[in-house]
């Protein structure tokens, strides 16, 4: 049976939204502080958020949290939300009383493509899955494969591609390039397959596009009432139709990898380094659905976080040439000790060589402070509780922690908190890194959910950035807008266009 009115439904919603936003604008423009949200009946502050979606994280940091003392309670429809970037509250939520603030069933619904994996579970299932993940990520064979893949992809893929683009004076989108590099790296690490995204013809891989769609539609699921997106999912309309197609791509890809591995299991040679799939494919505790969700979680944890961060690193370095000079000064003594190889025009550093690069690591941490790959963390509330800030939260409330805002708090990072200054991470003599508590620097999460792959991610990013900085000059093209996507990740919306020049050694 057809439902003709459904074709008119999006238009009706749009008209209603325009009317509401217009009324909101008139009212807020006459108020003493139009930056603070107006709490409308039924829709709450949804109109205010809608108006500011194009600058959402800046709006949260400076128009909501800063005037309210870094914590704020508000409502969207019938949903009550506590928003904070106060480190004392964060320590309470993530560590001191973390059992009262699980991810919750609603989070598992939003990211249903990863349901049952470490990404979505709480309590004992979380502890069990975390033990399994830790065992895999600490395996010498898995770590060895990760290191080998990273070095090979940079040396044989990234650097030759960048050299070709420099020679032809072609414009390069570093955001796209870094995402392709990291997708290649993690496809090899997780599944043992080379997707060859990092090649001169730059083929499209639908799996990577599907992962972007999952994060973009999940963002919509976060900000609209659950009943609304669930109705759209049931009717297969709007963004839910796009998400369903993306989830099908991800599940088909991972299942295909699983079936191929099972079919070839008898020819696996024990001396070959193990990829992550090898650690799960014959584990009876993982049925097909849980195995697919687990592999997708590994892809999100690696590809999405590192691939999101690296373009921001390049962006900050292009804007701060003095930081690039400092990195090269740190690299120079190590590279001078490397033997020259005939015919090799570009220099690579190995894992052991980048471990000692303190200033380079400071540039990564400073980028993560200002541009965390996951800008907002969501938690549920189990029972009524009072935050250290004095705010009361009730059962079934939602807690949102703005990680983006924490890095821009003067009380935590000083008057220069909006400046990109890697030196803030260094000791006075510049030889050691300063420690920042995880509730003040939340890029790798905090408490029992502290990121298991933190050290691996930092090492991989150091290898990539060292190779780029030493071998190339990167100039950002003038006049391009640097905006962020409406996504659960802090990805660049329009890319990062640059010109490359090969350095003469």
TrEMBL record:
Its cofactor is heme. InterPro entries: Cyt_P450 (IPR001128), Cyt_P450_CS (IPR017972), Cyt_P450_E_grp-I (IPR002401), Cyt_P450_sf (IPR036396). It holds the Pfam family p450. Coiled coil: none annotated. Signal peptide: none annotated. One of its GO terms (molecular function) is iron ion binding. The keyword Transmembrane helix applies. One of its GO terms (biological process) is lipid metabolic process. Heme binds at residue 451. Keywords: Heme, Iron, Membrane, Metal-binding, Monooxygenase, Oxidoreductase, Transmembrane, Transmembrane helix. The chain crosses the membrane at residues 6-26. Belongs to the cytochrome P450 family. This is Cytochrome P450.
